[in-house]
Design brief:
By secondary structure, this protein is α/β, with parallel strands linked by helices. The protein has three domains: about 110 residues, 3-Layer(aba) Sandwich (Rossmann fold), CATH 3.40.50; about 220 residues, Alpha-Beta Horseshoe (pyruvate-formate lyase- activating enzyme); about 55 residues, OB fold (Dihydrolipoamide Acetyltransferase, E2P). It is about 35% helix and about 20% strand. The chain is built from 13 helices and 18 strands. The strands form five sheets. A five-stranded parallel beta sheet has the order 2-1-3-4-5, sandwiched between helices. Strands 14-15-16-18-17 form a five-stranded mixed beta barrel. α2 links the parallel β3 and β4. The radius of gyration is 22 Å and the shape is globular. The chain binds iron/sulfur cluster. The site of iron/sulfur cluster has 9 residues, from α6.
């Protein structure tokens, strides 16, 4: 059966969304067309996530659900982090899957995308040991113009850090930064008003290519190319003064700091840098420089060895830091990671209790910070009819600004905040 129509499902993080865009670009370049219903497709591709247990379960459930929907003879291909992490094992435990294809280190860039997902991966019943998983490099593949006024741009693959809880370096490999020229070419190709730069370890961009601190010139270059540039996943030790200045000068004064915890001893146990006092001083220094700066962070709750004192320190920090947005995640034991064999395991009930305490405090802080914006004038990018975002909101993870429905999508507008509802604002044209 020749493959005419494909159905692509993307799970996981913004980096996976970018990878899917590039897979889609190659399938379209191979003359295929997209269908919304998996039951109409000749080829079904699932771009999976394997970061933590719940994400893996969602990936497997999605694969099995698509297998139920597919029609006779259609191909089911698994790619993304599950393919990276488990490789051909996956093909063995999931006989429903016709092929597993990774996005890792380029092995044979001459292999065309359409061929790889179906023909080269281990097929049903094959002895996986005999046929290694084919991989090819997506990082610099072309993308179609963005269908939204904003777009994620992946500036590097892999990571050189060794955070105790994280398995990503084990299957995404060491950091490989793209060239600034390739990134700018992609930004221009996308044609979006706002570009969100993503990578596993964004602030380390260029460190592996002899362009240490290259993130600063990249931000300035992209900021000269599009209206808005936003950065996600900043490792705190690499938040240098030049980088802060570049972000402030870009006009999108938004800092997504991947802090994970604030207790010195626990951060050492996580094999990460910093502590609450250092983070607080940095945030306060940035607020003196840019009072309108917005902050987001993520924290892990229940990492092995987390004590009541560690938790109390994090509660205090969240109260003191007054961040705009926070994500709190229960620690998930990941085989093959440093933390997997640590003592001091925190009971699930205690983890849940700590998570609730933190979330309640942060929800109150976010609501208060949003309400404090009532009466202010802000500039928004209209993402959809009646929905926009100012510099304070990243797409898909933060609140939104509800707008008059006739403001043009894809345009920037000055509006006045008239009300707020939890994480969301209501605004009217000035
Ligand atoms: S910075 Fe740490 S948490 Fe992030 S991908 Fe690298 S090892 Fe994982």
């Amino acid at each position: 059966m020749s493959l005419q129509r494909y159905h692509l499902v993307t799970l996981g993080c913004p980096k996976n969304e970018v990878d899917s865009d590039k897979v889609e670009g190659t399938l379209l370049a191979d003359g295929m067309s997209a269908v919304d219903d998996a039951g109409d497709a000749d080829l079904i591709v699932v771009n999976t996530c394997a970061f933590i247990e719940s994400a893996r379960q969602e990936s497997i459930d999605t694969i099995l659900a698509l297998d139920d929907q597919r029609r006779e003879g259609a191909k089911l291909v698994v790619t993304g982090c599950m393919a990276e992490r488990y490789g051909s094992e996956l093909a063995d435990v999931l006989p429903e899957v016709d092929s597993v294809a990774g996005f890792g280190v380029p092995v044979n860039s001459t292999v065309s995308s359409a061929a790889v997902p179906v023909s080269l991966g281990p097929t049903r019943g094959s002895k996986s040991a005999e046929r290694p998983i084919p991989v090819f490099d997506l990082l610099n593949l072309p993308r179609a113009a963005s269908s939204r006024p904003w777009a994620y741009v992946k500036i590097a693959e892999g990571c050189d850090r060794k955070c105790g809880f994280c398995a990503i370096p084990s299957f995404r490999g060491a950091q490989r930064s793209r060239s600034i020229d390739d990134i700018v070419a992609e930004v221009e190709q996308l044609g979006a008003r706002e570009v969100i730069l993503v990578a596993q370890d964004l602030a380390s961009f260029g460190n592996d290519t002899g362009n240490r601190g290259g993130i600063v010139s990249l931000v300035r270059t992209v900021s000269d190319t599009v209206d808005r540039v936003r950065l996600l996943y900043l490792y705190p030790s690499d938040l240098t003064d030049p980088l802060v200045d570049a972000i402030v000068d870009s006009g999108v004064v938004y800092f997504d700091l991947s802090l994970q915890h604030v207790s010195s001893s626990l951060l050492r146990r996580m094999r990460r840098w910093g502590n609450g006092q250092k983070f607080l001083s940095r945030i306060e220094a940035i607020r003196r420089l840019a009072p309108d700066a917005a902050f987001r962070s993520n924290f892990i709750v229940g990492y092995p060895g987390e004590t009541e004192d560690d938790h109390a320190e994090l509660l205090e920090f969240v109260e003191a830091a007054q961040l705009d947005w926070c994500g709190f995640f229960s620690y998930s034991r990941e085989s093959g990671t440093y933390a997997a064999d640590l003592d001091g395991v925190v009971a699930p009930e205690l983890m849940a209790e700590r998570l609730t305490e933190l979330t309640e405090i942060q929800d109150r802080i976010t609501t208060e910070r949003r309400a404090a914006l009532i009466g202010s004038t802000i500039e928004v990018l209209v993402d959809d009819a009646g929905i926009g975002r100012s510099h304070r909101e990243a797409p898909e993870i933060d609140g939104i600004v509800n707008l008059p429905g006739d403001l043009e999508v894809g345009e920037l507008h000055l509006v006045r905040v008239t009300d707020s509802a939890g994480p969301d604002l209501v605004a009217d044209r000035v």
